[in-house]
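Technical appendix A lists one of the benchmark inputs used to test multi-chain prediction within the project. The record comprises two sequence entries:
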Amino acid sequence: MVTTQEARPTPPSARGPRPRTTRAAGTPGSRALTLLAESWRPVAVLLALFALWWFVAWRELVPAYLVPSPGAVAETMAADWAMLLEHTWVTTLETIVGFVLAAVIGVAAAVLLVYSRTAEKSLYPLILFAQVIPKIAIAPILVVWFGFGMTPKIVLAVLIAFFPVVVSAVAGLRSVDPELLEMSATMGASRWKTFRKIRFPGALPQLMSGLKVAVTLAVVGAVVGEFVGADRGLGYVLLLASGNLDAPLLFADLILMSLIGVVLFVLVEVLERLLIPWHASRRGNLALATV
Amino acid sequence: MTATTGHDIPARAAGTEPIIEIAHLTRRFTSRRSETVALDDVSLSVRPGEFVTIAGPSGCGKSTLLKVVAGLTRATEGDVRLYGKPVTGPQREIGFAFQRSALLEWRGVRKNILLQAEMRGMDRRRAEERADHLIALTGLTGFERALPHELSGGMQQRVALCRALLHEPRVLLMDEPFGALDALTREQMNIEMNRIWRETGTTVVLVTHSVPEAVYLGSRIVVMSPRPGRIVETLEPGLPDRREYGPTLADPRFTAAAERLRDLLGASHAPE
């Protein structure tokens, strides 16, 4: 029908090969180098703090029953590793279950709030108000209700971690470009498809920020739950050690607690990297890293 | 009055039932304090295969007009029909290209185009073949997996165009799709748009405030006045469907229509 002989100019940008982007990471060697380049500063600060601790303990500037030497802490860890491992596992499990539940319930609640005006008007103010109640004060009630097992710790972890998830998920789901929703309407897409393919993926960057806050809070929830009434877990060990003025055990316990938080946080970071490699925040990081 | 009446109106456009029929359309936006009349008694019908450009200054309700036809916003008064049926809700038998490309930033070019197929539940293999055909047609070959942020503005609009054409809609509605592009890229997109229109036979309604774009692309140019949006005049320069860019711009029919359009738009800009 149409014999095309006319000049068909292509824009200069379309002529060249596919542009190299920052997404293309370098060789494993250079990646390790950039990792080192990025992380040497915090590591240096950490080492300095450690040196200060060691110095204080070595010169006995503070009595050993208040600040034990790093060596004493390491000895305790080595001697009691089986016991500590068991309690660490308990706290970790409580934290993970609490965090996952908070994430699931939080996202579900956010979806409800975003899609139902009634739910938003009646529930959102309550959720905000509930956040003002000091969760830690609820812990004793939870013990009364659920006993001394894992349940009250998990419930407390959920209660504390829930809020950042809801807030970030609501913000993420609401931030969808209205034009994308209109486009979806002209495609005759169902609400569910629009949610699955446009709204939810678009909300992920903000949701992931909320999840990172939530995972660190979940640790706090679990430990506080153990403070109030438990016979297992790092919170319980901490109380015992405190009662016995066992400073090395106290410190060992504290280090393990922090370790749980750090490891879980890194896991959420990895999840974020997998889920939203396209996002500007991730691009920014990598662009800087390759400089 | 009509500035020039074309003699060689495309054959496929003549003597057929209108594909879009707008009769006495009025659209008012009411807020607590004020009422804005975006469109006032607009009547327009578009025949199959036509390329209608709607030109007007910003804020003349031309985008609203397009959204009413797509069923994305309601008419306050009047009757809007698409394929003979009244428009009551979002229309899915159309392709819509937005002012900003409205691409999903987490999807590559090909997957962004295929979103159309996923949403409609089209046959996957056919959709993929069609997507590859459109990618070739718009010169996006080699960029299938590139993410939107890796593309230039012009390429992003090409992707949006492919997506709007994937399901072979009989009607393509375009809301200032090239408004954000630089002049040179815009020209190139216009040339390609003319070619795609001829090759696909799609009926196109394109909203623009660029004079050359309106005249170069349109087989009919509808000129609108600013608030309240009314149709002031319809131009039919009678240029052939197939238009070489340079020669067309020098064509007396083009220059006459462009001058008339510029006058009309300029007049509506004049201080009161």
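Residues 101-169 of chain B form one domain. The radius of gyration of chain B is 18 Å. Comparable benchmark entries are summarised in Table A2.
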